[in-house]
Design a protein that fits this description.
Chain lengths: 298, 300
Amino acid sequence: MAAKAQTRTSVLPQPSTGSRVADAAFRAVMYFSIAVGFVGLGVILFDIAADGLPRLSWDFITRFPSQIIPERSGIQSAIVGTLYLMLICGVLVVPLGVATAIYLEEYADRSRWFNRLIEVNIQNLAAVPSVVYGILGLAFIVRGPLSIGRVLLAGGITLSLLVLPVVIIVAREAIRAVPPSIREGSLALGATQWQTIWKQVLPGAVAGIATGVILALSRAIGETAPLLIIGAAVSPRFNPSGLFESFTALPIQIFAWTTDANREFVSAAAGAILVLMVILVLMNSVAIYLRNRYEQKW
Amino acid sequence: MPDKLTDAQADATRRERSDRRFASSTPAPATAEPRQDGRRPAEPIFDVDDVHVYYGEHKAIRDVTLNIQQNEITALIGPSGCGKSTFIRCLNRMNDLIPSARVEGRVVYHDEDLYGSRIDPVQVRKRIGMVFQKPNPFPKSIFDNIAFGPRVVGMKGDMDEIVESALRRAALWEETKDRLKTNAFGMSGGQQQRLCIARALATEPDVLLMDEPCSALDPISTGRIEDLMMELKESYSIVIVTHNMQQAARVSDKTAFFTVELDDTAKHRTGHIVEYDVTDKMFTNPEDKRTEDYVTGKFG
């Protein structure tokens, strides 16, 4: 019986050894890549948590930074500065980004050279290093034409410019995901183009836009270089009381502490990193929730 | 456009239209309406004169000249790519949405050239509704789907009544009256398409353009939509593009057969009308050999 079965040629031959090895090798490479990412992240998290967790307390969050006594130092002004920056950024970037995306998707005639130029420029701007935006902010906002100084608004505008291209790109994708048949259906009922955009396209795209904006803002509040260049304050013992006050932010505070000659500030930096990461995880969770809850399936 | 729509007023409009039809002194040509018991053809609603449509440099259809009668169903048939959809989209200026599209010639609707310089395409589309090949309900409730049109065109009146009236005319009221607030995406394909018809009727158009409205539907849903079309032509004029010749034969009063030819370089296809006549004649005794080949299934 057994011999007979072996001589029979199957209509469904087994995979060759070569393809099985290739399959296994490909899986191994994938698992390794995932492991590199996870292990790297895990080591950093563990290291920071070991340093920072003991520092985490209500006092740490509510106290102002101290230049002198590491263990009495806190991050209130950094948290408040970061939240203000986020707010300014959101207020500036949502209308500008969405309006630009609407123009490019719904109105722009792609056969015109200047529309193609705008498109290419936005793609490029999204890839420009953040430090360049810092220089721009310093030259045009802090000094130069606007000359508003090293103030909260300057930081907010600079970060807005930094994430604006990303918001435009994400909003365009969300708008493009609304099928053309919806626009046709609306226009065929006698709706104007603006009514169609406002009442059909934007509601269909709002979940994608909101998700993109939150992810862009979470990038903005993690940025250090542009704020360093435009000159955020280091360890201020006060919150900014207006748009034209000096400010700091969590990444700046972290940077200041990690470079401090007094090594005892390192644990404070680790604690601030943990707080920043909690904020980022919360924002990303909101983005994921919004996407799952409100995303339109067509 | 009536300020306030009620069922009674919609009925009155319909009565007025049928009165006008019966009062018409024009004697009907003997062959014009053989399938309709005693109904007279009304005046032409579209007078299409020598229309050519271009996409960029490419001519998509040429030399289209035909009259479309009021309160009739006019079917456009022909092989794929022959420009039927391109043509039907000329009738409510949907081709405007394609940047490279250009329409030459005259499309006269109620004595006005739709492509005249002073015509606002938005106003055109308020009067000439359209139903598309694939049902395209908005991702909203059934109620809001219907109410969208009346709201954007600024119709006054009780929205509940407007919605109910439109759903009744599309024979959808009984199925939907208990679930008006549910999302239209939960309906079956056939219901979605009738919702799209109801949506188009809600703004009180006088023409309904249907671009292959049944191609995504099963035979039962198709039958319901055909029944609906027969009822609707009492109050509306209907132009339908269809690939289904039985459908054209079943429902339409007039049929236009389009075909497509390759140009000299054999790169571009240009559609044109071969024959346009009363449906019965088109299917039983067409003038042109090409029409006969098409309707008997020898070609296309």
